[in-house]
């Protein structure tokens, strides 16, 4: 009975989104357990300069290119270990992001510790990401 109610609710959300011309409802319905972290990237920087997250929780990172005249990307790595071999692969975006567009990572679950996030293409400073 519970799954039937969940199915009915999901169908109602999808149908409502289609009627309103908002396919984002479909994307939101598919991402049930992960929290989406929204990050805007402007020329030379991210607008959020520090993140504090909970260990063991799933996150999806969505990056929007806000005025950068070339494609941007997104990297998470352990603090002090920013070589490509140390990058958290699931945090890579699904594509590089052109001005005015957005892209998402896969689900990322981080252990306790300190990390950094940055754009290797823009390039941006390395920003602090603390997982407790």
Q: Do you know the CATH architecture of the largest domain? A: Sandwich
Question: How much of the residues is beta strand, in percent?
Answer: 25-35%
Instruction: Extract low-pLDDT stretches.
Output: 2-31
Return the string of H and E elements: HHEEEEEEEEE
Broad structural category? alpha+beta
Mean pLDDT: 84
Evaluate the radius of gyration.
17 Å
The CATH superfamily of the largest domain turns out to be Cupredoxins -  blue copper proteins
Biggest pleated-sheet summary: 5 strands, mixed
Q: So how many helices?
A: 2
The gross shape turns out to be globular
CATH class of the largest domain: Mainly Beta
Structure overview:
There is one protein chain. The protein is an alpha+beta fold and 132 residues long. The protein folds into two domains: 1-30; 33-131, Cupredoxins -  blue copper proteins (Immunoglobulin-like, Sandwich). It contains two helices and nine strands; from the N terminus they run ααβββββββββ. The chain has helices spanning 2-19, 24-30; strands spanning 35-42, 45-46, 50-53, 58-65, 75-78, 102-104, 108-109, 113-118, 127-131. Strands 1, 2, 4, 6 and 7 form a five-stranded mixed beta sheet that branches. It has a four-stranded mixed beta sheet with strand order 3-9-8-5, with no helix packed on it. A hairpin with a 2-residue loop joins strand 1 and strand 2 (45-46). The longest helix is centred in the first third of the chain and has 18 residues, at 2-19. The radius of gyration is 17 Å and the shape is globular. The model is unreliable at 2-31 (pLDDT under 50).
């Amino acid at each position: 009975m519970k799954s039937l109610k969940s199915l009915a609710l999901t169908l109602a959300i999808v149908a409502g989104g289609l009627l309103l011309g908002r396919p984002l409802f479909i994307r939101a319905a598919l991402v049930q357990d992960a929290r989406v972290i929204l990050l805007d990237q402007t020329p030379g920087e991210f607008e959020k300069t520090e993140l504090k997250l909970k260990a063991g929780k799933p996150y999806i990172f969505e990056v929007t290119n806000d005025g950068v005249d070339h494609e941007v990307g997104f990297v998470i790595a352990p603090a002090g270990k920013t070589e490509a071999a140390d990058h958290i692969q699931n945090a890579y975006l699904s594509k590089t992001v052109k001005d005015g567009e957005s892209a998402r990572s896969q689900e990322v679950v981080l252990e306790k510790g300190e990390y950094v996030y940055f754009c290797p293409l823009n390039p941006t400073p390395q920003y602090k990401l603390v997982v407790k």
